[in-house]
Design a protein that fits this description.
Layout: H1 7-14, H2 18-32, H3 45-58, H4 62-69, H5 73-95, H6 101-115, E1 120-130, E2 149-156, E3 162-170, H7 175-181, H8 183-190, E4 199-201, E5 204-210, E6 213-215, E7 226-227, H9 237-263, H10 275-297, H11 308-311, H12 329-342, H13 351-357
Parallel strand pairs: 1-6, 6-7
Antiparallel strand pairs: 1-2, 2-3, 4-5
Length: 364
């Protein structure tokens, strides 16, 4: 209660303002409130939310959080688990809805306005979230960085908000394989995710209609709906320009991960929890990140959310070997169309030639 008298310190302590805290509490209170019994008074919802947010803000061990709030260690663990679960369940429909055609169109317009990449509906990337090695799992969670992790795969819009996430895959799996086996990858492959129909690029009808696309790095396979950079070192200027423009749009996903990590310091150290609780923590922080950006960016319509848990990939289960990554002729043609557009009078931007010719092409 004393922190409410010092808004700046409150925001540092809980990573959100007093008004944002109170609005979140109003949403969660009916779902985290416990019944009063003859034996003791329950911990009130405000205290429960404060405990959870303090853990997410610092990543301190449960023993430290317990000492700060004068609670039992097991009580803190139970509060974090239950509150993270309710944060995801109560906020996902509003702050991470299943993308509709209107949401895709808005995202594409924002990518063109902010990052000079038309017909782009999201930037895709994966983040390894470090955890303590789970018991009896061998090398399942061991990744190429030499740590144990689970993977957060995220599709991000032009304003650093998460459009869709997939959580819980083993750290030893590749980003491309995880995407191919995810619910998001499967629905995109089937064409059942409300993506708008192909359209002409701005002021370039001679190039024909192209798909709305997602941009990603070389860890992902080329698909008609997924663009990756041209490979190789000695590329022609037009291909280097394409790689530069794609990198400028693709880096939004990495920036979103950076914002997430700086806001919630639980990502700064290995999570000392089991994988199931780590999944809940990751989902809660992602939806809270959208909630906090929502205060600035405006309202989002409430529709049915895209439930990865029911789709099967968010649970920790045996990973299926991904399909081959050989690109189709259609995918290569779409990438070449964007390449031609970026060096045409309709699609070029003044700074791209200076950066490429001065050797400032971003490595992707």
């Amino acid at each position: 209660m004393e922190l409410r008298d010092y808004p700046d310190r409150f925001k540092i302590y809980f990573r959100m303002s007093v008004a944002q805290f109170d609005a979140l509490l109003a949403i969660l209170k009916p779902h985290i409130k416990k019944k009063t019994t003859n034996f003791r008074e329950p911990i009130d919802p405000e205290q429960r939310l404060a405990v959870c947010l303090r853990y997410l803000s610092t990543g301190d061990p449960f023993t430290t959080i317990a000492s700060s709030f004068r609670l039992g260690i097991s009580t803190v663990g139970m509060i974090v688990r239950e509150t993270c679960d309710q944060i995801w369940l109560q906020l996902k429909d509003t702050y991470m809805p299943t993308p509709t055609e209107d949401i895709w169109k808005h995202t594409a317009r924002r990518f063109n306005e902010r990052w000079n990449f038309p017909k782009c509906i999201g930037a895709l990337d994966g983040k390894h979230v470090k955890i303590e090695a789970p018991a009896n799992t061998g090398s399942l969670f061991f990744n190429y960085k030499g740590t144990f992790s689970i993977v957060l795969l995220a599709l991000v819009d032009a304003d650093y908000r998460f459009l869709a996430i997939d959580v819980g895959s083993y750290g030893g799996n590749s980003d491309g394989g995880i995407f191919a086996d995810s619910a998001l990858g499967r629905t995109l492959h089937r064409g059942t995710l409300n993506v708008p129909a192909p359209l002409e690029l701005p002021s370039a009808p001679e190039l024909g209609k192209v798909n709305h696309v997602i941009v990603a790095d070389e860890a992902f396979p080329m698909k008609p709906y997924l663009l990756r950079p041209y490979g190789g070192k000695r590329l022609q200027e037009d291909k280097r320009i394409f790689n530069l423009r794609l990198s400028k749009a693709r880096r939004i996903s990495e920036n979103a991960f950076g914002i997430l990590t700086q806001r919630f310091r639980v990502y700064k150290r290995p999570m000392e929890v089991n994988p199931d609780l780590a999944d809940n923590i990751i989902k809660a922080t992602c939806i809270l990140s959208n909630y906090l950006r929502h205060e600035v960016m405006g309202q989002v319509s409430k529709v049915d959310s895209f439930d990865f848990d029911n789709a099967g990939n968010a649970c920790l289960e045996e990973f299926q070997r991904p399909r081959g990554n050989r690109a189709s002729e259609e995918a290569l043609h779409i990438r070449d169309t964007f390449r031609k557009y970026f060096v045409s009078a309709a699609g070029e931007v003044p700074w791209q030639y200076d950066r490429v010719r001065c050797g400032h092409t971003v490595i992707v």
